[in-house]
Write a structure and sequence with these properties.
The protein is α/β, with parallel strands linked by helices and 161 residues long. The protein contains four helices and five strands.
Length: 161
């Protein structure tokens, strides 16, 4: 009797985006939980990251506000998921792919390019028309970094409402 393999298993894209969703749940940000996963050409995870304050900076000592003077908002202090994934990587990122719950901003695009990551797979591009994301796409295009939106084929863990 022949037994065939399962047909409804996750694709690599599905698997890595699910991992991004899970690691995003580590974020303490009350508004945005972002996750990122870097994989090499053999589909081995080499880095994970989520958005949060730098190590050693107590979450209770810095602001989570989104509006106000720059130093009184989270934007002055938060390390983005993509940056953390690169900083946490345990192998070379040259030629790797990075999966992100959000399209990377211009600062993250610089890090992605400098570390030799060749493809960005993102879930949501909610800031598409803002200057930082226009600059991000411009730099990624100039550097020859491919990017594409992930289209789910299965229900995501921690689905946004």
């Amino acid at each position: 009797m022949q037994i065939d393999k399962r047909e409804d298993y996750f694709s690599w894209d599905e698997t890595f985006m699910q991992i991004c969703r899970v690691i995003a749940q580590r974020s303490k940000d009350p508004n945005t939980q972002a996750g990122s996963c870097i994989v090499n050409e053999k589909n081995v995870v080499i880095g994970l990251g989520y958005n949060g304050f730098p190590r050693g900076c107590a979450d209770e000592k810095l602001p989570w506000a989104r509006e106000g003077n720059f130093g009184d908002t989270k934007y002055a202090y938060v390390v983005h998921a993509e940056e953390n994934a690169v900083l946490n990587s345990n192998a070379t990122t040259e030629g790797a792919r990075i999966y992100c719950t959000l399209f990377p901003c211009n600062e993250c695009a610089k890090v992605i390019i400098q570390r030799g990551i060749k493809e960005v797979i993102y879930e949501i591009d909610k800031y598409h028309d803002k200057d930082e994301w226009i600059a991000s796409r411009k730099m990624l295009d100039l550097a020859g970094v491919n990017y594409r939106q992930y289209i789910p084929s299965n229900k995501l863990i921690f689905e946004k409402e």
